[in-house]
Structures are given as structure tokens and as C-alpha cells.
Amino acid sequence: MSEGVFRYTNDIFFLEDKLPFNKTRYLVGSQEKESYISVNKSQYMILEKIYKLTQEKNYTFSEIEDYLINKMHKKIDVNNLYENLSKKGLMENTINLSPNNEVNMISTDILNFEVDEIPKTIVRIIKVLSKLSILFKILSIVFVGIILFNIDKLMHIRGSVFVYDNSSIKGFVISMLVAIVIILIHELAHVFAAINVGLRDIQFYMVLYVKFIPMYYTKYSKLMQLEYKKKIRVLSAGLKTNVFLLLLSLASICVIDMNQMAYDIMVKFSVVNTYFILLNCSPFISNDGYFILTNTFGIDSLRLNLWKTIINVFKRQKVAKIKNKFVLTYMVISTVFLIGSFVSMFLWIKDVVIEIIKGVQTFI
What we know:
By secondary structure, the chain is an alpha+beta fold. The protein has helices at 41-56, 61-71, 78-87, 102-106, 120-130, 133-149, 151-154, 168-196, 228-255, 260-281, 288-297, 302-314, 325-363, and strands at residues 12-19, 23-30, 35-39, 107-115, 202-209, 213-220. β1 and β2 form a beta hairpin. α8 crosses α9 (228-255) and α9 (228-255) packs antiparallel against α10. It starts with 11 loop residues before the first strand and ends with a helix.
């Protein structure tokens, strides 16, 4: 094996990303394999140099070792380096054995399709619409003013995600319909932002998260290769749109004279949207807040490690000792948040089932 030829996978990329707080993150990865490794500056320079060498001609492992010793004064076990990179799918003809994606690890695909290329007309329209962002910022300020001026009126609003007109069934149906609209708009905002920063290949997924919770999301080819600011622009687009919609709905309640049904639906829209914003802001579940957090601070595979720990506990396998206090704290809070989400959903479904049973009994 020592005389094997060292070749990276075809779509290998190297990213030196400037993060906030004067921090730099060094990534080497493959978009096709959905895999990357985070390395320090010295390791990054070595891997990048090897890449440049292997673009000129084929190098054996021993030739690379000799070059690194003679030219860079670095003694590297290239066999071991090759094995580690192969496990992440970063070498030619290898697959990623340890996926970075939590959703892939614990979910079942229901439906997925890919748009390879966005029509140029749509791209031009989105580029034009992006120039209206200043208008949305101005409108947001106006909406905040209207809300503050009519705060007394909003204080009397009573709404619940789970109940509508004293009915859990009606609450479930209306909340689901409102949530579908909100999620579609949320994901479209991500798509528009992705196209606006130059991404063109977009994948749409519907999965069963942890095998039973329906979940819809979009993935973008080459997202992980983007610089930090563009990446955050894409990741935060949905959340910003939800905040705008919440301000719009609350301002509408304040100034528009609605009939009772329209008023109730608008209140439900505001309540569900608020709930959705809180979930997305939280870094303790796999959503926009989590990805913004990990990309801002350059933290890798936080929730993936959480799920591996949980699975090992259930399988009664050895759990690696967690030395990082921040990671340990995150895992504890995230686990509690996850359990709380499952319990609230279970109780909601229980109330719906009980109401259906009572309705059937009354009918009989």
C-alpha cells in the first residue's frame, strides 16, 4: 500500500473561511459526498499542497512523504492520512463512512428530487426582487411602529397552537394548514437567497425525522463551500421572512377591521408563526438556529455527536467521556428540549384522539 497512488475525490474543495471574532475555519471537503473535515492551518496547508502536487502528476505515498520532509520539513504518515481521508469519502473511489448530516443518520426518506439548473428568467426575477430588500426593512420598521402604538389591543389576544374554538381537532387542522403555508414561504426564502448568492443546484427533501415526524427541507449544492457571510445569508433568510410575516400579521390585526373568522385565522397565523420562529431560533434542535450557531463559531457535528451518544446509551454501549463543558451543556439542554418537543406533540395528538373518540361515542 505504501506505493499506492494518492488521489483526492474529483470535487474536493479547500475553504479558508473568515468567521466573526477574528477566527478562521479551515475546511477540506466534498459536496457530492456531503462530507468535510475541519483542520488547523498547518494541516490545511499540507493537504492543499498535496492537492496541487497531485494535479501535476501521479504521486505515490512514499514520494509525497519524501516531498513533505524535504520541502516542508514535515514528517507525515501518508498511509494513515489516506485511511482517515478515505473514511470521510475524500479520496478517489471511497465513500463517506461517517456522515456529517444528522438528518441522514436518523431519518427515512419519503420523497426527494433535484433541480439541476434554475431557468435564467427565474434567476433574473429573483435578482430584481432582492433589490426590494430595503423596502421590506422599511415596512418592518413601520409595522413595529404600528404594533407599539396599538400594543394595548394586542395584549388582549388569546391564541393557542393546539386549540381553536375549544376544539383540539380544529386546532390541529388549522395549525397544520397554517404551518404548511409558513414552511413553504420559509423554504422559498431560503431558495431565493441561495439563488441570489450564486447557488443553482437545489435538492428538495421530505423525510420522517427520527422515523416518524414529517419534515420538509431544502439542500443546496456547494453551500458548504460558500464563505461565511454568504452562507449565513442563505441560512437566515427563512427566519428573517418569518419575522417579517409576524410583524405583518400583527400590524394587520391592529389596523384592519376584520370579521371574526378572518380575525381568528390571523391570530392563529401569528401564534403559529411565533412558535415557528422560536423553534428556528433555538440552537437546540436541528434547524436554522443550530446551523447559524455552528457556522458562526466553527463547531463541527454537535448534534451528530449528541445522537451518537443517545444511541450508544440505548444500546448500552460505551459512551465517550465529554471533556468540553460547552458541548456537554449543549447536549443536556438539547436532549431536554427534544424530549419536551416530543411530549408536547404526544399530548396534542392524545387530545385530538380523545376528542375523536368522544365524537364517535356521541354519534353512536
